[in-house]
Design a protein that fits this description.
heterodimer; A: 407 residues; alpha/beta; Rossmann fold; formyl-coa transferase, domain 3; 2 domains; 6-stranded parallel beta sheet; 3-stranded antiparallel beta sheet; 19 helices; B: 428 residues; 39% helix; 14% strand; elongated; disordered N terminus
């Protein structure tokens, strides 16, 4: 991939990532792309789910398609943290680090003697973030969730679904990267504070709360008007038409959002003379009327879109100044020339051959970051970390391996 | 409003919770960071709010007609009033407000004056508008080479679709997340609730600004931060893992309702008073779920034990056998019973239930604030608790142009006579 500048803004930082699954690796991976040395501590005793779920890439065990991208840029060491000998090694590692990341159930890292209070003793200016489901305190602090189950608690799922239908769950852990990048923001702001004052700190991120910060508007509506929103399909409270319409081809759709009366008039013209008779009816003239007659409006628009290609409809409407874009399939997104032109999907070298992964999704003009290293296999960096970084002798390292601490 | 009822809940574990350091110089983490926002709707205002909540000094610049959120509501009693819009208030607390007509020469000059002495600029104008006004990145970096300038666009500043218009709906569906993950296979893909794509773009813009901030520390220069609403969502969420599967193995897939691919159980299911999400991917989670259900005979066969992939072939049977247990119980009871046995299932709460939830209440998540003319109200609080530099709600959302005099005269040295002329001309 092309970078205009090789300056990596975080190149002097070391991050110890105790975390797993998706939220913590998203946070740590973003730091790695910007130059931080990220060391992931994991164990073969209870393998990170990210390495297990789904089809393994080229059948190399413990290195599947998710971990290939989620753990890219990170180094992997194996330590069974439930073993007392492992604690000292972890502490020694943290004493050389700037940032620690974990997302276990509250209390877990403390049982291993690796809570913030202990880590701060060996690294007084440490920044540590915990990303737990419900936060470190409170009656439900012990809950375990995955992204897909947590989003249910936040109110998100209750508001999505077909109109008058049940709530609809999302097919993957949608909110994991959301809370991961919110965590990243808090860590980067804590880093600014540390750079100015020399002081580290502890960050308690509740994934539930972090997600619920998106619903301020709904929370006020509830307090003022007692309104509890339910599934809205693809509709909007103020705009119509605002929907996803069928197009020519298998499971092909276009999303159209008409934001104003002016855009409606452009939309009407763009559909062409064959549609003009119905579209010029008075009951579709202004936004209020279009909202009231939305069912009929949507049916008529679908009748028009059905015969056309989704990308052609989008181009036609965009030329007329109306927001529209295909509801792309994953395949279309992966082959989309726009995403490719912006390095959305990029090829990297992996020990097992060239590999396509997601690029860096924010574009910084002068310090863009870099995909520097493919994902490690389990324990790939044991030698570097234990022998070179911590200066452990060969016999000591071998002994720890035999005893099952390095495992 | 009734708080969420509860009967029992898992006991808190033996925790060592760090207490905030009572240090004398404790303050906010972004104190002194000067941010100017020219935001409309959700994405840019949310990005700037995240920075404001961490202590940045944020000036929100609005056109004389105001941010679109002011007209969207919802409003108390459904009476439209630009100073009483829920979306506007929720997204703009902790900011000062300035109005400038950027379609006038004077408006543009005043904005550039403001940016000359600022660290960050965040805007989400439609494609081409800022460039036509002579306010593209070139002009901004000319007045302030140290500026971190974030532009949020439907498709970003480059690439074939850079001029395409869009909003939350097109960004969400353009990302392919709806087609792949949300909705029934025989119906249209669905949008995630609550303008997810726009909020997500805001989070990513704020994080990217802070990455650029540390970049500035290193190279001594400002830079342009180009955020595509569609792309950040697609690349960072859909792209993880799946892109390599597609390119190396040709695998792709589409939505299939509220049950997840992967394994069983992993589905949203109805219960006595609503819905729950039943999930058990690892062996001990299944064991816990079986215990929570009272170890019914149907659930105990050895062939069901293990990771959720092994149960995948028995999905319809397992969900059907589970249903009577669910039908007799409320969502919160099921949620808590499962959690007590380490099964990560949850209740599907609506907004009212979230607002009254005992756990969020115990943590003091909702923060009371007063908005002039509206009295007390509660807003969602911190997305994270920082032990040394707390998240703070310092000021209400600004009224349209509330801080015009303060900012223009105080910060830019505009005389009161000139301010009066600007007002008369409609520039501010």
């Amino acid at each position: 991939m092309t970078t205009k500048n090789d300056d990596l803004p975080l190149r002097n930082l070391r991050v110890i990532n105790f975390g797993w699954i998706w939220a913590a690796p998203a946070l740590a991976g973003a730091l790695a792309d910007m130059g931080a040395e990220v060391i992931k501590i994991e164990t073969g005793r209870r393998v990170d789910n990210t390495r297990l779920s789904g089809a393994n890439y080229k059948d190399v065990s413990l290195l599947n398609h998710s971990s290939l991208t989620l753990l890219r840029g990170q180094k992997s060491v194996t330590l069974d943290l439930s073993r007392p000998e492992s604690r000292d090694i972890a502490l020694e590692l943290v004493s050389t680090a700037d940032i620690a990341v974990e997302n276990f159930r509250p209390g877990t890292i403390g049982r291993w003697g690796l809570d913030f209070t202990s880590l701060r003793e060996v690294r007084p200016d440490l920044i540590m973030i915990s990303l737990s489901a419900g936060g470190q305190t409170g009656p439900l602090n012990q809950i375990t969730t995955f992204g897909s189950t947590l989003s249910c608690l936040t109110g998100l799922d209750s508001m999505q679904g077909y109109i008058d239908g049940p709530p609809q769950a999302f097919g993957t852990a949608l909110i994991d990267p959301l809370v991961g990048y919110l965590g990243l923001l808090s860590v980067l702001s804590a880093l600014r504070h540390r750079n100015r004052t020399g002081l580290g700190q502890y960050i308690d991120l509740s994934q539930w709360e972090a997600t619920s910060t998106m619903y301020g508007s709904q929370v006020l509506d509830y307090q003022w008007n007692g309104r509890v929103p339910g599934p809205m399909g693809n509709r909007d409270v103020a705009m119509a038409p605002h929907g996803v319409y069928p197009c020519a081809g298998d499971d092909a759709w276009v999303a159209i959002a008409v934001e104003s009366d002016e855009q409606w008039r452009s939309f009407r013209r763009a559909m062409g003379p064959s549609q003009e008779r119905w579209a010029r009816q008075r009951r579709f003239d202004d936004g209020y009327r279009r909202l009231r007659h939305q069912d009929d409006l949507d049916k008529r628009i679908a009748r028009w879109t059905r015969g056309h290609d989704a990308f052609e409809i989008a181009a036609l409407l965009q030329t007329a100044g109306v927001p529209a874009f295909p509801a792309q399939s994953d395949r279309q997104a992966f082959l989309n020339p726009h995403f490719l032109a912006r390095d959305g999907w990029v090829q990297v070298q992996h020990p097992f051959g060239p590999l396509t992964v997601n690029g860096i999704h924010w574009k910084l003009s002068k310090t863009p970051g870099k995909l520097r290293r493919s994902a490690p296999v389990l324990g790939q960096d044991n030698h570097y970390v234990f022998r070179e970084l911590l200066g452990m002798s060969g016999p000591v390292a071998e002994g720890l391996e035999r005893d099952g601490a390095i495992a | 409003m009734p708080p969420s009822s509860r009967t029992s809940y898992p006991a808190p574990g033996n925790l060592s919770v760090p207490t905030p350091d009572p240090l004398p110089n404790s303050r906010t983490s972004l104190a002194g960071l000067r941010v100017v926002e020219y935001g409309d709707g959700v994405a840019a205002p949310f990005a700037a709010k995240l920075l404001a909540d961490l202590g940045a000094d944020v000036i929100k610049v609005e056109p004389p007609a105001g941010d679109r959120s002011r007209s969207l509501g919802p409003f108390p009693g459904d009476e439209p009033d630009p100073e009483r819009s829920a979306q506007y208030i929720a997204l703009n607390t902790n900011k000062r407000g300035l109005t400038l007509d950027l379609d006038t020469e004077t408006g543009r000059r005043l904005l550039l004056e403001l940016l000359r002495a600022s660290d960050v600029f965040i805007e989400n104008a439609p494609p081409g508008v800022m460039e036509r006004r002579g306010l593209g990145y070139g002009a901004l970096s000319h007045v302030n080479p140290m500026l971190l300038a974030a532009s949020i666009r439907p498709f970003g500043l480059t690439g074939p679709y850079r001029d395409y218009l869009g909003g939350d709906l097109t960004a969400w569906h353009g990302s392919a997340l709806g087609h792949r993950y949300l909705g029934e296979p025989d119906r249209e893909p669905l949008r995630a609730s609550g303008e997810y794509a726009s909020y997500y773009a805001g989070v990513n813009a704020a994080a990217a600004v802070m990455l650029a901030y540390h970049g500035r520390d290193r190279i001594g220069q400002g830079q342009l931060i180009d955020i595509s609403e569609t792309e950040v969502l697609s690349v960072s969420t859909l792209g993880y893992g799946l892109v390599s599967l597609f390119y190396e193995k040709g695998l792709h897939n589409a939505r299939r309702g509220s049950a997840q691919r992967g394994g069983v159980p992993a589905a949203m299911l109805p219960c006595k008073d609503g819905y729950v999400f039943i999930f058990a991917s690892e062996a001990h989670m299944w064991d816990g779920l079986v215990k929570a259900m009272g170890s019914p005979e149907w659930a105990t066969p050895e062939m069901f034990r293990g990771r959720y992939e092994v149960r995948a072939p028995y999905g319809p049977e397992i969900y059907a056998m589970m249903q009577p247990w669910l039908d007799q119980r409320g969502k919160e009871e099921i949620f808590l019973a499962c959690q007590e046995h380490r099964a990560p299932s949850t209740a599907v709460y609506d907004i009212g239930e979230v607002f009254g939830n005992f756990h969020l209440r115990a943590r003091g998540f909702f923060i009371e604030t007063r908005q002039p003319g509206l009295g007390a109200m509660e807003l969602p609080g911190p997305p994270y608790r920082m032990s040394l530099t707390p998240w703070v709600l310092r000021r209400p959302a600004p009224r349209l142009g509330e801080h015009n005099a303060e900012v223009l005269c105080g910060r830019l040295g505009v005389s009161s006579g000139e301010l009066a002329r600007l007002r008369k001309a409609g520039t501010v």
